[in-house]
Amino acid sequence: xxxxxxxxxxxDLDAFYASVEQLLDPSLRGRPIAVGGGVVLAASYxxxxxxxxxxxxxxxxxxxxxxxxxxxxxFGEYQRLGDAAIGVLHDVTPLVERxxxxxxxxxxxxxxxxxxxxxxxxxxxxxxxxxELGLPISVGVATTKHLAKxxxxxxxxxxxxxxxxxxxxxxLDPLPVRLLWGVGPVTEAKLADTGIRxxxxxxxxxxxxxxxxxxxxxxxxxxxxxxxxxxRHVETGRRAASxxxxxxxxxxxxxxxxxxxxxxxxxxxxxxxxxAKGRAGRCITVRVRFAGMRSxxxxxxxxxPVSTTLTITEVAVDLARTALADHPREREVSLLAVSVSxxxxxxxxxxxxxxxxxxxxxxPGTPRAxxxxxxxxxxxxxxxxxxxxxxxxxxxxxxxxxxxxDEFRELAERDGGHGPGQ
DNA sequence: TCTGGGGTCCTAGGACCC
DNA sequence: TCTGGGGTCCTAGGACCC
Length: 422
Hints:
CATH architecture of the largest domain: 2-Layer Sandwich
CATH topology of the largest domain: Dna Ligase, domain 1
Structural class: alpha+beta
CATH superfamily of the largest domain: DNA polymerase, Y-family, little finger domain
Distance between the termini: 26 Å
């Protein structure tokens, strides 16, 4: 509201993983490549020209593009180069909101006195990322976050699009609704059913119609985006609201042993990350996806926040059992997931206090909360010194060739602790 | 097309309280 | 006893994003 004349940059590295691979190995440049194996994690623009997309199965990608080269991921390099690119934004303004490993907003409203007009700042950012890191990056410049994001998508690949104040609607109107943030395949189809295909058509639609079609919140929000009334500010230090982990399993019989093994592994990942960030959570949610791809969730809210591996494992196994009991016909599962929400931030000292669970004392043979916590801390310390694989669950316990490398799991974290500045 | 892993936000019904 | 309104929390599901 105060920022009527805000100037926002949205910077987005192009085909990021694939670009890094082409940077590291010059023989891959100009060729269609995909990062991944069983599934495409990222495709180069040469591969995208054949219709190859992220999330696509490797087999399908090869059908579309027989010359496609699959490359193994250099995950450490992705993190390093992603951090470095975001670091260039930090040189321009402290108001940087990182959205993922390869994408961030920057509010440069107050930077123009030092660095010149916003388009010049955007060009300088692009030039530095290209010269110093060797990577293409697209930038959108506009008066709101949402429009800057749309502009950077229009700018791809390796481009800059500036939407001058006052020209927003002219820019937006002809674009397909799919470019708006929050419009996916389902919403796109619903809108198309009523004849709405462009943002202009969306902006002209009756608010009442949109609310009826998409629900009150989504309808109002979308209507606002269509007329560029986006009130959000760039937020720096956002903290995650939940932490989770999942594993695709192919097709496995849902035995008790599978539940214990898998949730032991997943809870270990989640709990370790939570403790490293000094966080604990009360709500535990389990997702069970059956062989037919239908999935259900079960959740429970505990009396106190937890971050111990064993506690999360036990609760997750219990929840999964109830989900399976509710669907007795489903004997095989294709994915198991656990996440912890209702997070609180605990000072380290307070985390030392055992967070008791009802039943802790009553069940003979189960470790008490204090003991659980002590075990976790010991493991955390050993891993800090000797690496994650040195103790505890090994990823290989689960991997049957379908899984994604352990290193990749670390990347998708929103506030992964590797971020620049702060 | 037989689908990876990490998240956010919204909806809707029910329980419970004042 | 019946009725009303408002608020919060919990649970399950779904769309969407990178």
